[in-house]
Amino acid sequence: MKSLSEILALAPVVPVLIIEDLAQAVPLARALVAGGLYALEVTLRTPAALACIERIAGEVEGCEVGAGTVLNRHMLDAVEKAGARFAVSPGLIESHSFTDSEVPLLPGIATATELMAGLALGYDHFKLFPANIVGGTGALKAFASPFAQAKFCPTGGVTLANAPDYLAQPNVVCVGGSWVAPSDAVKDGDWRRIEDLAREASRLA
Fold it and tell me: What is the CATH number of the domain that holds 9?
């Protein structure tokens, strides 16, 4: 299993996916991978999410599928069983119950206090969330000097237009975004459009 740092470094954008229909999971993932985005976050916001992770993990070559919206240890254990290669949480749980899993976790933080708590737990990669509300690039610049060891994947309000500003920050490894898989394109099965959006995003590095 790749380390979290290796997974996040695969491409400049990690697609954040809400998949309603299990039948869409594999073609969606294949389109994103074909476009050059290899780490995918399937959020646990739909009844089909765990099955989608399992299908993608088993059928999509070259893909590191992760689980988003992981809120507790029970969910972390479930995504590990489904085959997730990494997990993402919108916040930070100040407990070592998350740090002993085989699945590496990207915890969310919004403040310096949360960042310090995460570093104390042994994390060094964080999701800045919701990035556009908690300070965006300004927050990242402020964190850079006192927390030089911390690396970030800003998510929340990140778009094709502002992603380059985030990626220009030296403490940003990648960004998380949903624009590469628009809901209408997924619903219509427009995998060519999604592949084109992914290819455009993959060139942001």
Answer: 3.20.20.70
